[in-house]
Amino acid sequence: MVVKKVHLSCNFNTINEMSTVLKTFVAYLKRPALYPELGRKIIKNTVSRRSPFKGKAKTNSWAASIAVSQKEAVARLFSMNTDHFRSTYADILEKASLKEKECPITMGGPGALELIYYACEFTKAQHVLETGVAYGWSSLAILLSLQKRNGTLYSSDMPYLAQDGDQYVGYVVPENLTKYWQLFRFADRESLPKIFKKASSFDVFHYDSDKSYHGRMWAYQKMYKRLRPGAVFISDDIGDNSAYQDFCAKKNIETTVVEYNGKYIGVFIK
Length: 270
Prior knowledge:
Number of helices: 11
Number of strands: 7
Shape: globular
CATH class of the largest domain: Alpha Beta
Structural class: alpha/beta
Distance between the termini: 61 Å
Mean pLDDT: 87
CATH architecture of the largest domain: 3-Layer(aba) Sandwich
Strand order of the largest sheet: 3-2-1-4-5-7-6
Largest sheet: 7 strands, mixed
Order of helices and strands: HHHHHHHEHEEHEHEHEE
Radius of gyration: 19 Å
Strand content: 15-25%
CATH topology of the largest domain: Rossmann fold
Low-confidence stretches: 1-12
């Protein structure tokens, strides 16, 4: 009987996975603007299945050996104290948390918000670029800083095709902050050229989108040359593969690594 239950459970999971894949594929077909990304995903999940994790063990060992806390990173890089962020924006963060709980679909939760916010404060940011939005937690942290200087956040985020969740992207961002925000709903390879036509240089870059090795390296190269001197570069989940470590080594960049909720974030000042 136990074997039968396990077998039925496996069949159920397989059916759910197949249903999700089919739903996503159909959603792609309905959006010609996303055809280039569909082609890339087919290649990534067939010919290049192993490349997204290239160098993962090496980078996790390296990151663990040098990682510091978010608080220490902000103090070291920006000479700022993170203690005031949560108290200053307590009401806004509480409302955002309630919005996330009521959202009918599941997306990525909040990351190192203080690191992102104080990067914008340190640079007195006017133009910020992020890849990956989800609920909009990182967007919220950026916009809370940009509103002080009437700046602009440019965000790249793929539609949530499998969940039919387009309407919930950026869900936790208050309406009054959206006037400082331009959201581009394509894959990075389509969004970034459109964004670069709007702004030629940036004060802060936050990467949290395509987790593959080649996807990261492509975006890192594109963004690095568009960061002004003194700008801040932040990349989430650098332990997924060695792209960030390899990029920093190639450019001879001295980076700080932040350990946050069991994952690693890379950050440096150009």
